[in-house]
């Protein structure tokens, strides 16, 4: 099916167009620069930016795909989770389009979209597979039986962070190192020239009782505090702070835990395929360490190109196409946004 997908859960206004697993257009307008001086996303600014960007982005997507709106088979939109005021802009736009064009409307899950985007790169998903979802607001290990959420167990969350998300940890560490928002890409770059073994930062929930009780869960707030304490101590002692070494050592701690638990989840579930999604999945070290460990464990790794890992409309469009193919029931005109939609609910 030819599906138009609309994404507006945070600070990216995305419109994507796909035909099944074929990507035809993926236009993204970001308000990230408007939030930079506040050190994080300001919800009111994001909502206004979505309003301004929605129609121009839609027009660009149709032009790029050379598709007329009357040709699309369905409209998919992010119904949650995300910022309420941001989500409602996309949902309202999608409803208006679906109503005006008399097309079926599908409210879908943003997090499932981060996983589904890989279908555009590598085709049908061998199931069951394990997905490592690492984004700005979420960090989870998922068992995916059916990405459309219909067959078998659908999407089951094996574990998740008990405090900060991985992306959030990058953003907070960047801030305490005096680096700009968003922190992921800048810490990633700073780490490139550092020594990942320079400082032994803690790996949360990876040993003893913690591991037993939280085998597939994550914790990054202790790591962030450890980085803060290390930097403070250096400054108090009048020593310089070797930024690349701090960044590389922090990054190694994050990637070590994420990859170890992802591979362990494959072993525990018998899954032979592992995929990653979400903004942090763009991280170079995470990708290389995971490739190494997946190879050693006999697991096939699927990584979408970095540009598809961060928020976009194509991930929503391809998830919509999967839902259409699975015979999912269209959402009614009463479709609303749900800021805390659980990942197991693919279709609203
Ligand atoms: P969610 O999907 O949980 O609702 P979100 O949509 O805001 O949150 P994404 O857009 O998927 O999150 O990802 C943004 C996050 O990814 C930010 O925290 C950012 O710092 C991080 N990030 C982006 N690129 C990289 C990178 N190269 N290395 C590490 N982190 C990165
Ligand atoms: Mg964003
Ligand atoms: Fe996201």
From TrEMBL:
Substrate binds at residues 133-137, 171, 184, 188, 283. Keywords: Acyltransferase, Cytoplasm, Iron, Metal-binding, Transferase, tRNA processing. It catalyses: L-threonylcarbamoyladenylate + adenosine(37) in tRNA = N(6)-L-threonylcarbamoyladenosine(37) in tRNA + AMP + H(+). Binds 1 Fe(2+) ion per subunit. Residues 22-317 form the Gcp-like domain. Fe cation binds at residues 110, 114, 311. InterPro entries: ATPase_NBD, Gcp-like_dom, KAE1/TsaD, Peptidase_M22_CS, TsaD. Signal peptide: none annotated. It is found in: Cytoplasm. Gene3D superfamilies: 3.30.420.40. It is an enzyme of class 2 (transferase). Its EC number is 2.3.1.234. Its main location: cytoplasm. Its cofactor is Fe(2+). Belongs to the KAE1 / TsaD family. NCBIfam families: gcp_kae1, T6A_TsaD_YgjD. PANTHER family: TRNA N6-ADENOSINE THREONYLCARBAMOYLTRANSFERASE, TRNA N6-ADENOSINE THREONYLCARBAMOYLTRANSFERASE, MITOCHONDRIAL. Required for the formation of a threonylcarbamoyl group on adenosine at position 37 (t(6)A37) in tRNAs that read codons beginning with adenine. Is involved in the transfer of the threonylcarbamoyl moiety of threonylcarbamoyl-AMP (TC-AMP) to the N6 group of A37, together with TsaE and TsaB. TsaD likely plays a direct catalytic role in this reaction. This is tRNA N6-adenosine threonylcarbamoyltransferase.
């Amino acid at each position: 099916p030819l599906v138009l997908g609309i994404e507006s859960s945070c600070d990216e206004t995305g419109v994507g167009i796909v035909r099944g697993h074929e990507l035809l257009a993926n236009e993204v307008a970001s308000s990230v620069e408007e939030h930079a001086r506040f050190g994080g996303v300001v919800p009111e600014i994001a909502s206004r930016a979505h309003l301004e960007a929605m129609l121009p982005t839609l027009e660009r997507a149709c032009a790029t795909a050379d598709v007329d709106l009357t040709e699309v088979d369905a409209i998919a939109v992010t119904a949650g989770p995300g910022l309420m005021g941001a989500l409602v802009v996309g949902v309202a736009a999608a409803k208006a389009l679906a109503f005006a064009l008399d097309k079926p409307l599908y409210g879908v899950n943003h997090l499932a979209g981060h996983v589904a985007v890989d279908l555009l790169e590598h085709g049908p998903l061998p199931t069951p597979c394990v997905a490592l979802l690492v984004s700005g607001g979420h960090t989870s290990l998922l068992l995916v039986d059916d990405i459309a959420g219909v067959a078998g167990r659908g999407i089951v969350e094996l574990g998740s962070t008990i405090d900060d998300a991985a992306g959030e940890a990058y953003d907070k560490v960047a801030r305490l190192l005096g680096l700009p928002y968003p922190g992921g890409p800048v810490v990633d770059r700073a780490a490139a020239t550092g020594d990942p073994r320079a400082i032994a930062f803690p790996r949360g929930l990876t040993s003893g009782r913690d591991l037993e009780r939280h085998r597939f869960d994550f914790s990054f707030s202790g790591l962030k505090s450890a980085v803060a304490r290390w930097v403070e101590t250096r400054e108090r002692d009048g020593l310089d702070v070797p930024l690349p070494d701090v960044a590389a050592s922090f990054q190694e701690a994050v990637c070590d835990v994420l990859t170890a638990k992802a591979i362990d989840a494959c072993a525990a579930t018998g899954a032979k395929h592992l995929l990653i999604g979400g903004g942090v999945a763009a991280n170079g070290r995470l990708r290389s360490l995971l490739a190494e460990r997946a190879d050693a464990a006999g697991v096939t790794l699927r990584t979408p190109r970095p540009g598809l890992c961060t928020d976009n409309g194509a991930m929503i469009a391809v998830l919509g196409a999967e839902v259409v193919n699975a015979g999912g029931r269209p959402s009614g005109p009463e479709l609303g946004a749900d800021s805390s939609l659980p990942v197991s609910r693919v279709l609203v």
